[in-house]
């Protein structure tokens, strides 16, 4: 039986962890190194570190912070933000990351997915997909640059494209649900999960423990990512895992 994973996310801007609602109205949530250590001790299965303004501002991910965070961790660690070349990937993995996350660069240069998968192995390449529902499309549209730029990609077509190019995992964020705390976008997660064979990490909308059960049992997610409910101590990784076990969900 597949073990479901709980993954706190550190959205980092200018060296601080921040959290907003639907990608805007960001507020401070703490120091990334302290939070990383805290979540490791709490029993998080993995950690995701996203330098959320790197692609928009044209910067590289803060390697120094990545290095410092990695030094505190005994769990797998994924890093994304401003990774545009194979050299960028090498730099991030050398700094201590276990995986790299591509989002904007995957759309603008899809061959980068294949280059990374060929060089490091698919297990190191996560493609992050930010999706927003489009009434005219009757489905979800893919966005880049921290949710600022709409693309022509429909979400399931893009998910199939990135996995065909070698992505080993998809980090799927619902822009509509991000920070809203009223549950994951189950139709979105389920739709993408049905068309790919790689693990899907659900992101956007976690507000209470029951939401984790829903996304695993109803949408088939392999992992659930959350930020604000952990950062602001509304619940803990330990409490979520304990609740999931009580509900019969297989967690570490």
Short descriptors:
252 residues; alpha/beta; Imidazole glycerol phosphate synthase subunit HisF; TIM Barrel; single chain
Written account of the structure:
The protein is globular, with a radius of gyration of 16 Å. Strands 1-4-5-6-7-10-11-12 form an eight-stranded parallel beta barrel, surrounded by seven helices. It has one domain (5-246): Aldolase class I (TIM Barrel), CATH 3.20.20. Helix 1 (32-42) runs parallel beside helix 3 and helix 9 packs across helix 11. 48% of the residues are buried. With 252 residues, the chain is of the alpha/beta class. Helix content is 36%, strand content 28%. The N and C termini lie close together (12 Å). Its EC number is 4.3.2.10.
Write a brief structural summary.
With 252 residues, the chain is α/β, with parallel strands linked by helices.
């Amino acid at each position: 039986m597949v073990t479901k994973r709980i993954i706190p996310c550190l959205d980092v801007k200018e060296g601080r962890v921040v959290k907003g609602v639907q990608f805007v109205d960001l507020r401070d949530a703490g120091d990334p190194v302290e939070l990383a250590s805290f979540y490791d001790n709490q029993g998080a299965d993995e950690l995701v570190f996203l330098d959320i303004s790197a692609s928009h501002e044209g910067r590289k991910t803060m390697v120094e912070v990545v290095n410092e965070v990695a030094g505190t961790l005994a769990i797998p660690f994924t890093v994304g933000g401003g990774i545009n070349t194979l050299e960028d990937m090498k730099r991030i993995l050398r700094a201590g990351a276990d995986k790299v996350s591509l989002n904007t660069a995957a759309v603008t240069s899809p061959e980068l997915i294949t280059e990374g998968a060929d060089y490091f192995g698919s297990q190191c390449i996560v493609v992050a997909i930010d999706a927003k529902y489009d009434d005219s499309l009757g489905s979800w549209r893919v966005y880049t640059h921290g949710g600022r730029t709409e693309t022509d990609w429909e979400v399931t077509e893009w998910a199939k494209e990135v996995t065909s190019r070698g992505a080993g995992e998809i980090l799927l964020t619902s822009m509509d649900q991000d920070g809203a705390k009223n549950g994951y976008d189950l139709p979105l997660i389920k739709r993408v999960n049905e068309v790919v064979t790689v693990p899907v990490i659900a992101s956007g909308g976690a507000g209470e423990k029951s939401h984790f059960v829903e996304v695993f049992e109803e949408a088939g997610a392999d992992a659930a990512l959350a930020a604000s409910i952990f950062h602001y101590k509304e619940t803990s990784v330990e409490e979520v895992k304990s609740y999931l076990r009580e509900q019969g969900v297989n967690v570490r």
